Amino acid sequence: MMILKRIGSFLNAEKLPLASEVNMSEHAAGSIKLAIHHSDKGEGTLYRLKKNSLIHVHPGASLLGRRVAIYCNYPADGKEFNRHVYTQLQWCSPTGTLLSQSGGSKFVSIRDVDCYCTVHLNHSGAYHFYVQYEGAEEGPQAGLYVQVEPSLTVGKGDSLTVLPLEAIRCQTVIAKLMGPVGSWEAKLRVAKESGYNVIHFTPI
């Protein structure tokens, strides 16, 4: 079963809270700190973040002493999202300087759990971070998943209102089973009267 954790974001850049310490109530977009742990591929947990959050991914204590490379499929600037295209991220020291990759290797020795990688999440969607160890088989040895909430609005000008995701009640309709278009209104009225305010039509 997938666990969905709504992560509030915090603006204290000096000491960012760990995910396990975060109050799941509403907070403005800011910075959040999440850890990657050895052998935990994150497939049972999805972290839900505000759009425009700055995520700091840091190694858990179980990664100390390992040589590690970290990747994410968040799109690079100006690129379209492709879930299968990953970019290697750069590890930074606690003071913010880039950690060197000795001998042209893509791996960095993890000697401090306060080192980190950052990604500014200004595009909504679901993204995957994973680490690979030097000398290990190809593919993720550990990772985590995040979902960046979209910004939904109604109205315009002074009446513009931002809708929280909890306000959306969506029903999926299989378009090819709806029959003639002339009969759709009566069928969709049932959804309206049942309290749904968004209709999702599957592709024909």
TrEMBL record:
<dbReference type="InterPro" id="IPR010401">
    <property type="entry name" value="AGL/Gdb1"/>
</dbReference>
<dbReference type="InterPro" id="IPR029436">
    <property type="entry name" value="AGL_euk_N"/>
</dbReference>
<dbReference type="Pfam" id="PF14699">
    <property type="entry name" value="hGDE_N"/>
</dbReference>
<dbReference type="GO" id="GO:0004134">
    <property type="term" value="F:4-alpha-glucanotransferase activity"/>
</dbReference>
<protein>
    <submittedName>
        <fullName>Glycogen debranching enzyme</fullName>
    </submittedName>
</protein>
<feature type="domain" description="Eukaryotic glycogen debranching enzyme N-terminal">
    <location>
        <begin position="56"/>
        <end position="155"/>
    </location>
</feature>
<dbReference type="GO" id="GO:0004135">
    <property type="term" value="F:amylo-alpha-1,6-glucosidase activity"/>
</dbReference>
<dbReference type="InterPro" id="IPR032792">
    <property type="entry name" value="AGL_glucanoTrfase"/>
</dbReference>
<dbReference type="GO" id="GO:0005980">
    <property type="term" value="P:glycogen catabolic process"/>
</dbReference>
<dbReference type="Pfam" id="PF14701">
    <property type="entry name" value="hDGE_amylase"/>
</dbReference>
<feature type="domain" description="Glycogen debranching enzyme glucanotransferase">
    <location>
        <begin position="162"/>
        <end position="204"/>
    </location>
</feature>
